[in-house]
Amino acid sequence: MLINDHTGYQALYERLRQFGSLAVAFSGGVDSTFLLKAASDALAGKVLALTVSAPYIPQWEIKEASELASMMQVPHLIIPVEILPALSNNPPERCYICKKALFGRLIEEAQKQGYQHIADGTNADDACDIRPGRKALKELNVHSPLLEAGLGKEEIRKLSAILGLPTAGKPAYACLLTRIPHNTRVTEDALRIIEEAERYLHSAGFPDVRVRHHGDIARIEVPQHIMPRLVSSAQLAKITAHLKYLGYRYVTLDLEGYRKPVPPEQKT
User: What are the φ and ψ backbone dihedral angles of 221, each rounded to 5 degrees?
Assistant: First the structure.
């Protein structure tokens, strides 16, 4: 299938053309990479990629984002930020607080660079979830062209593959604050330990993994169908030893498997 024959992509392309120029909040994930590529095609030379570098965003993600922007020949700015005082205790409303502050900073930078419109990679599937961060984006008038075009994650993956994007099969990822329980003090040391633990598991052949941080306990989550491979892996002893080297006293496997954290609004 030619990508221009896809009605969802056509709708996205036409929507992007309406902006004239566009700054894209760019994480290097599946959605924002596809959006950046589509925007680059629709608005040649009038697109800017903006990436936040924060202590709770893995450095390898920043590096990948930079490489992807370079591959697409899109100007790319990395905006460094610190942990907000309001996030220091990882409150239940962290996503709203974080999005409101970070996108406020991105909007400020976009306008400074001459861009009046900014877009993010929210897709049609995200509309089915309760996401506090989306409330912040609406308040800031951030555009979500993938959502507007009705494109969901699987369609975006398929279209990404047609475009030859290396992110077509990339697992979903979330910021490292999601690995720490709510109302728990956040430290840069804890964030670095989590980042290194997950990086090591990725290198061991487990890309779709979360290391939940409970003080001196690491609670590993992988999809249930992956569990047999993890526990029978010849690398299991090495994984355990490495996580203990990082500072964990206990390394555990969550038998319920990987699952998305439930937002406070959905808890009963």
Answer: -115, 125
